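User: Please predict the structure of the protein below. I'd like the answer in structure-token form so I can feed it into my own downstream comparison script.

Assistant: Understood. Taking the following sequence of 181 residues as input:
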Amino acid sequence: MTTEDSSTPFIRNLRAASGGLLLTVLTLLFGQGLGVAFGLNEDALKSRIKTDAAAVRETAYRGDDAAMKAVTDKSWAYLQRAHLHAGSMGTTALGLIILVCLLGVSRQVAMALSLALGGGGLGYSIYWLWAGFRAPGLGSTGAAKESLAWLAMPSSGIFVLATVAVLGVLVGSLLGRRDPR
């Protein structure tokens, strides 16, 4: 009997979920890295956003400084949103992946759900950062978000669907286990 065969279902599922766990830890590190970058370079990041907007002041903003300020302010909020989403979605994904592994689902289900949670959280966090940096040059946060819908929609959608699937697995597990007393 190999070590793999003698391990518990939790350990087998944890191994199957390792790809999603890796993405989840990368999501957490992404969020923490943004926090460090904000703490060390907030002024430089804000300056970059303003410089990008100033480069297209006449074309994208038609010389409207108020519109340019609104976009740069919201762009900074998007960068912060990337940090917050990475922390919350990474933490949520980690907890849900461990829960799935503890519930003793098949290795394939553990792998699929972990990849969806880890990949979805990382993708959606990257989306907010990217939108924050794209918006000033495009002259619109709406245009930035629309240009990145190809990333936002699937990553957020897969994360939510995986979360609903975990709920289904949990409910199925709770209803399937009867106390013999």
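That's the full token string. DSSP finds seven helices and no strands in the chain.
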